[in-house]
From TrEMBL, chain A:
It comes from Tetraparma gracilis. The lineage of its organism: Eukaryota, Sar, Stramenopiles, Ochrophyta, Bolidophyceae. Residues 317-501 form the 3-hydroxyacyl-CoA dehydrogenase NAD binding domain. The keyword Lipid metabolism applies. It is an enzyme of class 4 (lyase). It comes from the Eukaryota. Residues 503-599, 632-717 form the 3-hydroxyacyl-CoA dehydrogenase C-terminal domain. InterPro entries: 3-OHacyl-CoA_DH_CS (IPR006180), 3-OHacyl-CoA_DH_NAD-bd (IPR006176), 3HC_DH_C (IPR006108), 6-PGluconate_DH-like_C_sf (IPR008927), ClpP/crotonase-like_dom_sf (IPR029045), Enoyl-CoA_hyd/isom_CS (IPR018376), Enoyl-CoA_hydra/iso (IPR001753), FA_oxidation_alpha_subunit (IPR050136). This is enoyl-CoA hydratase. CDD domains: crotonase-like. PROSITE patterns: 3HCDH (PS00067), ENOYL_COA_HYDRATASE (PS00166). In the central section; belongs to the 3-hydroxyacyl-CoA dehydrogenase family. Its EC number is 4.2.1.17. Keywords: Fatty acid metabolism, Lipid metabolism, Lyase, Multifunctional enzyme, NAD, Oxidoreductase.
TrEMBL record, chain B:
Residues 295-435 form the Thiolase C-terminal domain. It is found in: Mitochondrion. This is acetyl-CoA C-acyltransferase. It comes from Tetraparma gracilis. It holds the Pfam family Thiolase_N. Keywords: Acyltransferase, Fatty acid metabolism, Lipid metabolism, Mitochondrion, Transferase. Coiled coil: none annotated. Belongs to the thiolase-like superfamily. Thiolase family. The keyword Lipid metabolism applies. InterPro entries: Thiolase, Thiolase-like, Thiolase_acyl_enz_int_AS, Thiolase_C, Thiolase_CS, Thiolase_N.
Length: 721, 438
């Protein structure tokens, strides 16, 4: 290999190392670190003229976006990662050993290994560009910062701030970074290089002191919490509580990060601390949890691209029909991303309700300072409120590129709406329907241009649910599907394409799940046991809570609708009168203040099960089978998972990746298990088939595993390779 | 009798025709009611957005935005610019704020017309805004001086700063200072000036009170009949204007004078209340409006801004202005079918007095070579309510008058409308609109 080009050195002795990896984003791959090492040992180390080094990116909008996940994924025996990480850490130690000032000049993404690199430096300058963000997001992939991050960060910003960054993986923006001491100077992107060189020169001359000078004075409050034994014990208690609350304790990475920092605080030698850190890293890399989370990450990246080609034209204006919870949510996520939104409802009161919901959500962001006033105003201005009496609505709709309807679920109403709209919308305008119960093909029958009709099935509440099902019917053009995918992706949703069948994918899987919940209640499982079992499995909420949250009436309707659909024996075994009777009693869930739980109107977090509901559940029991937590988990999850595999078998979804992402993002299916397909792979498909067969014998044919699952079990193959 | 249309307007002869395409207002509301939490800039932004919603105008086509306002929030000195940017209008559209007391949005609209006539623009949004729910209440001058000198004093340490601050400071200096309601030059409150003029032209309390009741009843009726639908844009789903009260002579006549006691004529009822509101008008060159497929409501034909002696004739500006416009267009009072007259706080009195002045021979002899401006036909004046009932957000009323007069020209099939309004400092404005035949 030719030696790397020599870096530019200023007359004052500042070497400018421009990081320039092969891809648009700099990532620390094995190759990248090898090149860095070569550069250091041939050009910097032996060069006496170099008195300081500035690391700056040659890319327009990133410093280093992190370590290359593919490299880590491709190492089968994770133990092999140990020497590789050690090698990387040795490189950073070699940098430090030259004892010259090191300055990181950050513009754009500086994440994971990139930030760890900057942390090894003596001084950090960052740009105030909107693209500049710093984070240690390893925890989101079930890992930890393995290049010294767990040791270097807390010394710079204090333990509390460091734990917050490492346990949540959140982005730190320039102003915050300066305030917390993560960077020393914030400046315009154009002045970045100049400032970094000036800082390096001052570090050479001694005008600015080299570390360990603390650059930011700790407040006495933080001193009391972080540096006194009682403060520390309280602090760790709080941190543990937060981790348990956010993860239910099922993810190992946060605890490993805590261990690393605690170990670092004991004050052993840096070498020992770094060794401890990388051993923990390797342990985490070998866990199923990490593999699952990386699988989700890869899946999301893959789903950003779709196979429907390019839409015929760019969507600029989206009309949303219906300003209810769904319509308003769709309008919100569209307006936030710069679409002009024609939000239309029957009357001004309906629009006002929708606007209240949207503006309320934005006001919260404004208060939390996650949105600027100007962005708030721009978003607000992107929403054009229209009702039947607005003189201009027809003219406005003449410029719509896409209509998304979220009106009441009634085929005749939907046909009427399409007909009315088609008098005003341009020919190219895509007509998307947010139905969850009516076949898209049936809705398209009401259209002059059925090729423009496509399903876009959002999940409620739209702003926080990350999934979108895109449902082309048989006659939908690829251009319309592509437009729907593009809009959905830009709205910040992960889109999966699903065949036009009852329930599409997510609700179809939820059908047997809901039936089984009623079956379990009938077989003696208490409401508490149902919730607790599924929480312990790793679902974000138990099934009883879930039913309350979506509304007992809605859940009952989905179950009823799917029972009448094409799913045959798979919707049997339970008794959904459990929910139907509740609807009759007006126990509609959280929205009514009373579902399975009774909600305290003053404190939305407080919920109890009333004696009346307990009795109701008790009366529902036909035979108490003495069910265990494992029974509950197996019976609910297997119905759910089997249906997902059935969907793959019937080509309702395109791949196991779509299937995993769909249920994780659509239902919260335990992310650390990686979705139904990865869960099966981990569990062992043959073992799972055997388990289901056992239940089929005792409980009935609804537990019979589908053909594809049996085939996979027989062949010994896995869904994910 | 009027001059042929081709030469109507200013001396520019072949000047381009300027049309009023559309106009809206956010519901005018009493101080500290529905807009209690908004800044004026928010109100203005909402009005711009509402106008765009109503007209479906592509914001990228706008050439210029100008907004009138009176009480200034120092954070948004150029409130027009901030409102423009906040309303989703491209950041490349320039905008300026203009102030001329209560005729601020009149001057905004006429400035727009001038720009269009001069060929500098084709599409301009001109509007106005005012809030009384938030006004700049300041420290006294003394305290301000101390605070400005503080950085220098701080160099002597905290004790030096403290001694700098408290030296010579009286308790009274700590009292906050609200924006003055009296004129800066004359030191007179408008209610008092108006009271003086009502004596001069012999307008009785009875007459004023009758006008008050009529104004509220006109406004209430106009709302009930849906006249303001699409003109008043909803705020949080409602277009109610909460200053309109159904009242009777009996109740109104019981009130005590508010300004000149004990026998003054102006009361809380027959003076307009402090109002929050914003309005916006879409002004275009005729050819651009037609090119974009709009159906304009009216031409802006002629206008005048005049000033008179604020010590003596504070509220008479409109009379001078009206005379000037009528004369310039060769029109008589009889040619006018729609009157929208907007006096200030003391609406009923001033309009009555102004009507009297317009019809006063002595006044005409003195000022207009004996030609009376003429009697305003009261049945054609402010028939949809006026500032007294709808409210009078200083900066925003002018645009409301233009919109309402234009709409009345269309609905009542009249040819000409005369707008007249006065402003603090002895200023006056009159404007003549002509119906646009679509």
């Amino acid at each position: 290999r030719p030696p790397p080009p020599s870096p530019q050195v200023t007359p004052s002795g500042v070497a400018l190392v421009r990081l320039d990896g092969p891809k648009a984003m700099n990532t620390i791959s094995f190759e990248f670190s090898a090149a860095a090492k070569r550069l250091w040992s041939t050009q910097i180390e032996p060069n006496p003229a170099v008195k300081a080094v500035v690391f700056i990116s040659a890319k327009a909008n990133n410093f280093i976006a992190g370590a290359d996940i593919q490299d880590i994924k491709n190492v089968d025996d994770k133990q092999e990662l140990l020497p590789i990480i050690e090698d990387g850490v040795d490189f950073f130690k070699a940098m430090k050993a030259k004892k010259i000032p090191l300055v990181a000049a950050v513009n754009g993404a500086c994440m994971g290994g990139g930030l760890e690199w900057a942390l090894w430096c003596d001084y950090r300058v960052c740009s105030d560009s909107a693209a500049t963000k710093m984070s240690l997001p390893e925890v989101k992939l079930g890992l930890l910062p393995g290049f010294g991050g767990t040791q270097n960060l807390f010394e710079l910003v204090g333990v509390q701030a460091a734990m917050d960054m490492m346990l949540t993986g959140k982005d730190i923006r320039p102003a915050k970074a300066k305030k917390m001491g993560l960077v020393d100077i914030v400046c315009s992107p154009h002045a970045l290089e100049h400032n970094a060189i000036a800082a390096a020169e001052d570090l050479i001359s001694g005008a600015v002191k080299m570390p360990p000078v603390p650059r930011k004075k700790k407040s006495w409050m933080n001193w009391a919490i972080e540096d006194t034994p009682p403060g520390q014990s309280k602090m760790w208690e709080t941190i543990n509580k937060m981790v348990m609350k956010n993860t239910n304790g099922v993810y190992p990475a946060p605890f490993a990060i805590i261990d690393c920092v605690k170990n670092g605080l004991k004050g052993g030698s840096m070498d020992d601390r770094l060794k401890f850190e990388r051993e923990k890293f390797v342990e985490l890399a070998a866990t199923n949890e990490s593999a699952s989370l990386i699988g989700i990450f890869d899946g999301m990246t893959a789903l950003k691209k779709h196979s429907f080609g390019k839409p015929e034209r760019k969507t600029g204006t989206i009309a949303v029909l219906g300003a209810g919870l769904m319509g308003a949510g769709i309008a919100q996520v569209s307006a936030e991303k710069g679409y002009k939104v024609l939000l239309k409802d029957k009357n001004a009161a309906g629009i006002a309700n929708g606007e209240k919901y949207i503006f309320g959500n934005w006001d919260k962001k404004l208060k939390r300072k996650t949105m600027t006033m100007h962005k708030h105003n721009q978003n607000t201005s992107n929403i054009v409120p229209l009702d039947d009496s607005s003189p201009s609505w027809k003219k406005q709709f003449g410029s719509a590129d896409m209509v998304i309807e979220a009106v009441f679920e009634d085929i005749n109403l939907k046909h009427a709406v399409i007909k009315e709209m088609e008098e005003h919308i341009p020919e190219h305008c895509v007509f998307a329907t947010n139905t969850s119960a009516i076949p898209i093909a049936d809705i398209a029958k009401g259209s002059k241009r059925p090729e423009n009709v496509v399903g876009m099935h959002y999940f409620s509440p739209v702003p926080s649910m990350p999934l979108l099902e895109i449902i082309p019917h048989a006659g939908t053009s690829d251009a319309a599907t592509a437009a729907a995918c593009d809009v959905g992706t830009k709205q910040g949703k992960t889109c999966i394409a699903v065949k036009d069948v009852p329930g599409f994918y997510v609700n179809r899987c939820l059908g047997p799940f809901l039936v089984e919940v009623s079956a379990l209640a009938r077989d003696g499982a208490s409401l508490e046991l149902l919730d607790k079992s599924m929480l312990n499995f790793g679902m974000p909420v138990g099934p009883v809570t879930l039913a309350d949250e979506v509304g007992i009436d809605v859940a009952g309707k989905v179950a009823g609708f799917l029972s009448d659909a094409d799913m045959g024996v798979r919707m049997t075994g339970g008794d959904i009168s459990l929910m139907e009777e509740m609807v009759a009693k007006g126990w509609l869930g959280r929205k009514a203040g009373q579902g399975f739980y009774t909600y305290d109107p003053k404190n939305p977090k407080k919920k109890t099960i009333s004696a009346e509901v307990k009795q109701y559940a008790k009366d529902f029991i036909k035979e108490d089978k003495g069910l265990t937590e494992e029974d509950v988990q197996n019976r609910i999850v297997s119905r759910f998972v089997n249906e997902a595999v059935m969907c793959l078998q019937d080509e309702i979804i395109a791949s196991p990746v779509d299937g995993d992402i769909g249920l994780i993002f659509g239902t919260g299916f335990a992310p650390f298990r990686g979705g139904p397909f990865r869960y099966l792979d981990t569990y062992g498909i043959d073992k799972y088939v055997a388990m289901m067969n056992k239940y089929a014998e005792t409980e009935g044919p609804q537990f019979e595993p589908c053909q594809l699952m049996k085939d996979m079990a027989a062949s010994g193959k896995k869904f994910h390779n | 009798m009027y001059r042929s249309l081709s030469t109507a307007g200013k001396a520019m002869g072949a000047a381009r025709n300027v049309v009023v395409v559309d106009g809206i207002r956010m519901p005018f509301a009493m101080q500290s009611s529905i807009y209690n939490d908004l800044m004026a800039v928010d109100l203005s932004r909402l009005s711009l957005k509402a106008l765009l919603t109503k007209t479906a105008l592509d914001p990228a086509l706008i050439d210029y935005v100008t907004i009138g306002t009176v009480i200034q929030e120092t954070k948004t000195s150029n409130i027009a610019r901030e409102a423009t940017m906040g309303a989703g209008i491209p950041l490349t559209v320039p905008s300026h704020t203009i102030t001329q007391a209560c005729i601020s949005s009149n001057i905004a609209i006429c400035t727009a017309a001038e720009k269009i006539m001069a060929g500098q623009a084709d599409i301009i949004i001109a509007g106005g805004v005012e809030t009384f729910s938030d006004v700049p209440i300041r420290f006294s001058r003394k305290v301000r001086q101390k605070l400005i000198g503080m950085p220098k004093a701080m160099k002597k340490g905290p004790m030096g700063a403290a001694s700098h601050f408290f030296k010579g400071l009286k308790a009274a200096d700590l009292a906050p200072e609200a924006p003055a309601i009296a004129n800066f030059t004359t030191g007179e409150v408008m209610g008092v000036s108006s009271d003086r003029l009502s004596s001069k032209f012999g307008v009785s309390r009875q007459e004023m009170d009758e006008f008050t009741v009529l104004s509220h009843s006109n406004a209430g009726k106009a709302h009930a009949e849906g006249w303001y639908e699409g003109d008043v844009m909803p705020y949080k789903g409602s277009t109610e204007e909460n200053g309109i009260k159904a009242s009777t002579m009996e109740k109104v006549s019981k009130l005590k004078p508010a300004f000149v006691k004990p026998y003054g004529t102006h009361t809380a009822a027959n003076s307009s209340f402090l109002t929050d509101g914003a309005s916006a008008s879409l002004i275009m060159s005729e050819e651009k409006a037609l090119e974009l497929g709009y159906k304009p409501m009216s031409y802006i034909r002629d206008w005048a801004f005049v000033a008179c002696d604020p010590f003596e004739e504070l509220l008479l500006g409109p009379t001078y202005g009206a005379e000037k416009c009528l004369r310039s267009m060769g029109l008589n009072m009889d040619d006018i079918g729609v009157f929208e007259v907007r006096p200030r706080r003391d609406a009923s009195e001033a309009s009555t007095k102004r009507r009297n002045a317009m019809d006063s021979q002595a006044f005409a002899d003195k000022n207009f070579n004996g030609k009376k401006v003429g009697q305003i036909d009261r049945s054609k004046m402010n028939t949809k309510g006026g500032s007294l009932s709808l409210g009078h957000p200083f900066g925003a009323t002018g645009s409301r008058l233009v919109t309402n007069a234009s709409r009345r020209l269309q609905a009542e099939e009249e040819r000409f409308a005369l707008l007249a309004a006065c402003a603090d400092g002895g200023l006056g404005h009159a404007c003549i609109l002509e119906r646009y035949d679509n």
